[in-house]
Amino acid sequence: MSEAQALERFKSRFFSLSGHNLALYKDVDPRLERYLQRTGYPDFEALYTQLQNNPELQQDLLDSISINVSEFFRNPERFQELKQRILPQLLRDRMQLKIWSAGCSIGAEVYSLVIMMANLERLHQCRFLATDIDSYALERARRGIYAPELIHHVAKSDLSYYFGPLHIKERLAYQFKAPWRQKVHFEPHDLLSNTYPEGFDLIICRNVMIYFNQETKYQVYRKFWQSLKPDGVLFIGGAEQLLNIQELDYTPISPYFLRKNKD
Questions:
Q1: In 3-state terms, the chain is what percent helix, strand and coil (to 5)?
Q2: pLDDT at position 177, please?
Q3: Each residue of 5-16: pLDDT tens digit?
Q4: Residue 147: what pLDDT?
Q5: Binning pLDDT at 50, 70 and 90, where does residue 132 land?
Q6: Among 83-92, 204-213, 249-258, where is mean pLDDT lowest?
Q7: DSSP letter string over 44-61?
Q8: What sign for the dihedral angle of Cα 41, 42, 43, 49?
Q9: Between residues 53 and 224, which one has the greater pLDDT?
Q10: pLDDT confidence of residue 69
Q11: Taking Cα atoms as reference points, which of 235, 225, 238, 232 lies closest to residue 257?
Q12: In terms of Cα–Cα distance, which of 111, 89, 102 is closest to 198?
């Protein structure tokens, strides 16, 4: 059996074992090969044998292929558009907002929204769900500890109000304060295999779908449509637009915001 055949067989068997279809990720093969080298197993057959009765190792593999790049108010101009254009429209028609940060990574994006809504004095109207496939990233999000370079877009007044300084191994870090962290419910979720929650006014999924192939991306957008309320909004990244997005019954508000059309 060639190396390519062994890798395809491994992905197929892992899907049967765990329900996670690694083949739907773009450029996943090099990441799997690096994982094999890092863990020291002689081949994918040996790795699969160890995975069979080891849920922790299965999760470690999944964590290794997910990409966690995040910072507070990443692309600040997009958050300004959200604040000045999208949220006023949503809040005008709704007493409460149900918000889902899908692929939340280490929590910086959803906590950015917490800060924004608190500054608008609308936090009491919001319910936040944040999900990710990476259990380690979720644990980091729950702790809410960030290096200074991840919060450079946070205003100085907000930094002192929402964060507390820490020194970890003689390095400065900042922790998002507990009363604000408690506003968000974090839970594991795989966009490629799990059932999607429903009833959201706003879904944020940025810089996640660039790792999926086109067909998978289309299916994820379709499921997000089902998760949104009529006139709900999907907030995406700059490189994640679909050319046929209107086939899915979204109306583009801008390149980064898509509104679900009413039934």
A1: 50, 20, 30
A2: 97
A3: 888 889 888 888
A4: 85
A5: very high
A6: 204-213
A7: HHHHHHHHTT-HHHHHHH
A8: negative
A9: 224
A10: 59
A11: 235
A12: 102
CB neighbourhood size of 211 (10 A): 18
Q: What is the pLDDT of residues 211-251, one digit of tens each?
A: 777 788 889 999 999 999 999 999 998 656 665 676 788 98
Half-sphere exposure of 214 (CA within 13 A, CB side): 4
Does pLDDT of 150 surpass 80? yes
Query: Which of 238, 247, 187, 228 lies closest to 208, judged by CA?
Result: 238
pLDDT value for 121: 94
Contacts of 239 (CB under 8 A, 6+ apart): 207, 210
Domain boundaries, the chain: 3-65, 76-260
Going 63 to 185 to 192 to 56, the CA torsion angle's sign is positive
The span from the CA of 224 to the CA of 113, in Å, is 19
Residues 6+ apart with CB under 8 A from 248: 218, 221, 222, 225, 242
Residue type, 241: Q
Do residues 134 and 62 make contact, with C-beta atoms less than 8 angstroms apart? Answer: yes
Which residue type sits at 209? M
- Looking at 3.40.50.2000, 2.60.40.10, 3.40.50.150, 3.40.1160.10, the CATH number of the domain 76-260 comes to 3.40.50.150
Helix (H), strand (E) at residue 233: strand 228-236
Backbone CA torsion sign across 224, 228, 231, 237:
negative
The burial class, CB within 10 Å (0-12 / 13-18 / 19+), for 128 is buried
Can you give the pLDDT at residue 240? Answer: 61
